[in-house]
């Protein structure tokens, strides 16, 4: 049973879901159209990975520069302003044929993406406290639904209606523009003044945010989310290349991305219901990802690769929202800053992984790249074992 919040905040939860939906639409659609962009601008695999890294670099920089802003002035103005930045970035992309201007648009989209997502998650954490795991996981379910529809809608509109790849950003930017109006009428709960910290006990103040950066719990969660987003971007952005070059099945490439995100929906829904077992979901998620990423490298038929994509979505699904929930609940007085730093870690992992994947694909092949992701997932499982062991020892003491 979640906390009851004042009726003036009733729009917060559904709006957070819709905001996540359109972010997911952009993410899934972008993953599907990357090869189309590379072909239009004649980019090789390394340059294609660098193109993705522009958005990921913006996702990393945004929270580092403005991650604590929501804790100081409130989450509402942060969400509104950077939703507008996202809209501007989408508008630029849909109205340019210049590669340089396209880079600028992608950077603005990533900047708006990161600050909107981190501030929205922090707002849900403020509104629901320790019961925030369910709405945060549900918002990520809507993100996954958007990511499922992104490739499918894009594939259909490009094939049947003659649109080009820019339709992804037209839909995502238009959705965000419409949501700006109800956002102005929504009240956000500010709980940054809470002094109770469950890990420290009643009556003790949470330490200043600078000391959080050296906390073993924070470092484990930060490294885990860095690895996870590297795994996510590395897998999804290069599935089109895998199906086109390795499996000679370009017609199935859009379904591979959609299947991956489709499987995340039930996984994230169940993780939200059974949110007390988030650490177990993380251990199983990283472990299963390591296994099926390896199996993907051995796939010789499209049906085998599609099955791996679906199963990888099941194991990937709970990881990102579970890490974010654990982080914001560990440090509730700094929910905005912590959520922002987690997004910065996401951006760093997302920026480095596509470049590495593209370079390995140029030197060897895409199967080698996916083998590296399997190793990364194994490291993620080891880190979560350390985190879980630390929490067990802390509770016993």
Automatic annotation (TrEMBL):
* Family annotation (SUPFAM superfamilies): MFS general substrate transporter
Q: Which UniProt keywords apply?
A: Membrane, Transmembrane, Transmembrane helix, Transport
Q: Major facilitator superfamily (MFS) profile domain: which residues?
A: 12-392
What Gene Ontology cellular-component terms does the record carry?
Answer: plasma membrane
Principal localization? membrane
Q: Output the Pfam families linked to this UniProt entry.
A: MFS_1
In which domain of life is the source organism classified? Bacteria
Query: In what way does this protein cross or attach to the membrane?
Result: Multi-pass membrane protein
Q: Name where it's found.
A: Cell membrane
Q: Name one GO molecular function term.
A: transmembrane transporter activity
Entry keyword annotation includes Coiled coil: no
**Membrane spanning stretches:** 12-35, 47-66, 78-94, 100-124, 165-185, 212-231, 251-271, 280-297, 303-326, 338-357, 369-387
Q: Which PANTHER family match?
A: BYPASS OF STOP CODON PROTEIN 6
Which family, according to the similarity comment?
Belongs to the major facilitator superfamily.
Record-given protein name: MFS transporter
Organism name? Sinanaerobacter chloroacetimidivorans
- Organism placement in taxonomy: Bacteria, Bacillati, Bacillota, Clostridia, Peptostreptococcales
